Amino acid sequence: MGATSTEHAPSPVREGPKIPVLKREKLILSGRSYHWITERICGVVENRQPFLWWLLFIPCALIAMIGVGLGLTYLVSTGVGVWGMSNRVFWGWDITNFVFWIGIGHAGTLISAVLFLTRQNWRTSINRAAEAMTIFAVMCAGIFPAFHVGRVWMAWFLAPIPNANAIWQNFKSPLLWDVFAVSTYFTISLIFWYLGMVPDLATIRDRCKPGLRKMLYGIFSLGWRGGNRQWSHYEMAYLLLAALSTPLVLSVHSVVSFDFATSIVPGWHTTIFPPYFVAGAIFGGFAMVLTIMVPARQIYGLHDLITMKHIDNMAKIILLTGTIVGYAYLMELFVAYYSGAKYEMDAFKFRITGPYWWAYLAMMSCNVLSPQIFWLKRNRENLWVVMGVAMAVNIGMWFERFVIIVTTLARMFLPGDWKSYSPSWVEIALFLGTIGMFLALFLLFLRFLPCINIAEVKWALLESDPHHDDHEEHPDPGVQVIPSYQHELHSEVKA
Amino acid sequence: MSTTRKRVYGYLAEFGSASNLYKAAEKVRDAGFRKWDCHSPYPIHGLDGAMGMKRSILPWFVFFGGTLGLATGFGLAYVTQVEIYPTVVQGKPANLFTVPAFFPIMFELTILFSGFTTLFGLLALMKLPRLNHPLFASRQFHRATDDAFFIAVEARDPKFHPDKTRAFLEDIGGKSIELVEEED
To answer: Cα–chain-centroid distance for residue A106?
Structure first.
């Protein structure tokens, strides 16, 4: 900190050639003002929703009520026998869906925490929606193991509190680790999401007319005033939560993978599972972010905030993580071959050529092959291609979990145990219901909460740097500013 | 009918940009004010230094919160599994060598407790939540969460003077200076 900042010593002239410096690129296009950003993002909440919102919300809410509401009522009132599982294939669609949804959440935490710590400022436009997606995905995920326990009214036995049987949970079991990991993940993600939203809720509060709305936004914005004595602590809290969430997000899917990897079942008993699951979770999560953000961007006209650069970056992350996942698939096969273990080899041979070959094929083509078209810039710039790949990855990641869980359990050690599995209508309804629930919750989020982080987007503008005008008025003669290569993406492409 | 007495909260002055606010903050700091704050729609980089503020002490709270979580995780697992109710499952031991199997839960509880300490520590340090604040009576303060930059100097600051402080704020470039009053 300088005692005075008004006098600027002239920059010393350096000898030698000019140093090339990349121009700091604009994350927000069209030179939008602070007030425009406030208006546009708050407008999503304050204005009447477009007809399309109702057109999506009503079916999603109905599907959620029928699938989750009636599906679970029927399940609980009848018994878990209504699911298609048997005493051999004891994990079917339920655990597949659990792993699928919990994986979706990981992109939100990755964007909000890991990209924050690595100072990837482009995250500011997408982190709020991605975090919301995390919360809703974990809510969908939690339904499945909770009801999979059978007698759901006994689910509280999972909590480490003394009970009448004087039996404590088995803390050595990955299933209990999972309880702790998922519940911690949900709690921390919720705190992160909510704290990040407090300044933006205050923005909406300050725009409301006095009344119930203003009171509710006022209560949830906690009396935020945007003073630097608040921002200072707030920024520290945000940094701490990011630093806590980063190892947490890596731990959650690792622990989920331990559910499989610590068993001795061929096809599950592999050390590659934790990194493979984490990469797959980020991969699937980013695909889901694109699946919901690209339409939202179009519907609400957020093109200057969520630019083609954001979409390009996410496409590249999908390409990277998809390739990691592909490496893991191939390495699994290689290790099965190289181990020389008969059961291990047969388990993988069965996955590829057995009666579930179509699931393996869907997994391979959707997850490994489809993202490869993102090597070409032309494909990353075409929103139809981006959406197509994102949908393919959503499907492929579901099949990955199906392949891991069902094909393995269907062929265990003893041929006498071999069973085939197909889901009952209750399982299908429940899965469709969670999709409806996820989308309905997301639509409600768009309706009532600021879907883009207003404060952080304003912070990302170039003029938000308090020394911006000093840099403009006193350019450094020793450097040569060159445009960054992403600049070419700034022109909007057809969509 | 009751008569409402008004008490002066302080002056609120607007500054045109983040840069102006930053430079004005340095001058308010150097003038020796203590009860004052800069209000902006987003956190301004380096403003802590310009205001002469120390680094937030929140990490210390979180360090102890996290340590407590780690101890809780270890205690919960060790006491129940080894001391009170040793269970042998899958031939895994129930003694000190069991501890590595407790690491995931110790880790998760460390994060969980740290997260809660961050939340509640932050609220305590920010002195929030509160339902109202004198500044909300201002006619222009609602723009602090939109596109305006303000400095608020409180009347309880020992250096506060109704005329001199106003002149000082004008001098350092403050616009639309407003005397904010709260109902007593």
So the answer is: 4
| Phi (first) and psi of residue A29, to 5 degrees | -95, 170
Lowest mean pLDDT segment, chosen from A311-320, A423-432, B56-65, B87-96: B87-96
CA distance A132 to B130: 26
- Record the pTM: 0.91
Test mutation, B47, B126, B172, B180, chain A, max A CBs within 10 A: B126
The HSE-up count of residue A233 (CA atoms within 13 Å, CB side) is 23
| Cβ-Cβ contacts under 8 Å for A385 (sequence gap 6 or more) | A373, A379
The phi and psi torsions of B104 (rounded to 5 degrees) equal: -55, -40
Distance CA A309, CA B127 (A): 39
Question: pLDDT (tens digit, 9 = 90+) per residue, B8-26?
Answer: 999 999 999 999 999 999 9
Judged by CB atoms closer than 8 Å, whether chains meet at A464 and B48 is answered as no
Other CB atoms within a 10 A radius of the CB of residue A145 amount to: 21
Number of neighbours of residue A109 by Cβ within 10 angstroms = 29
* Interface probe, candidates B90, B111, B117, chain A, greatest A C-beta count within 10 A: B111
Name residue B7's beta-bridge partners: B182
Pairing outcome for strands B6-15 and B175-183: antiparallel
b/e for A256-285, b at 16 or more Cβ within 10 A? bbbbbbbeeebbbbbeebbbbbbbbbbbbb
Q: Over 70: is that where the pLDDT of A301 sits? A: yes
- The CB density around residue A481, as the number of other CB atoms within 10 Å, is 13
For every residue of B64-133, DSSP letters joined together read HHHHHHHHHHHHHHHIIIIII-----TT--SSGGGGGGGHHHHHHHHHHHHHHHHHHHHHHHHT---S--
Measured between alpha carbons, how far is A421 from A227 in angstroms, rounded to an integer?
Answer: 60
Judged against a pLDDT cut of 50, whether residue A401 lies above it is answered with yes
Nearest CA in chain B to A172: B101
Distances (CA, A) of A357 to A212, A277, A335, A406: 57, 21, 20, 12
Q: Which two tokens stand for residue B76?
A: 């919960």
Say which residues have a Cβ less than 8 Å from residue A194's Cβ, sequence separation at least 6.
Answer: none
Q: At what angle do helices A93-109 and A273-300 cross, to 10 degrees?
A: 70
> pLDDT tens-digit profile of A175-184?
999 999 999 9
Write out the two tokens for B104: 């995931």
Contacts of B101 in chain A (CB under 8 A): 171-172
